[in-house]
Amino acid sequence: MRRRYYCVKQHDITDCAAASIATICLQYGKEVSIAKIREIAGTDRFGTTAYGIVKVVEHFGTLLIVENLFYIIIFYYNNYGEGDQTFLNLYKA
Description:
Layout: H1 16-27, H2 34-41, H3 50-59, E1 63-68, E2 71-77, E3 83-89
Antiparallel strand pairs: 1-2, 2-3
Helix pairs in contact: 1-2
């Protein structure tokens, strides 16, 4: 059985992190606006910092493990206590 694919599109060029996080949240049943994510992350005209991503993920109650600055693994625990892994790749500009 195929799982439905969710995609939240960016509103502008600085929304890539917010759109990615919103997509991950939607995939697991939590609808969060890009504006709310930007506010929590402190996104500015240059985008979102890695620290901003950590703040957002912690705000929504997931466990974030940072292996290095350019590769982040987010473990999402659903209501059944099962861990699903979602990978977010960050590249140096």
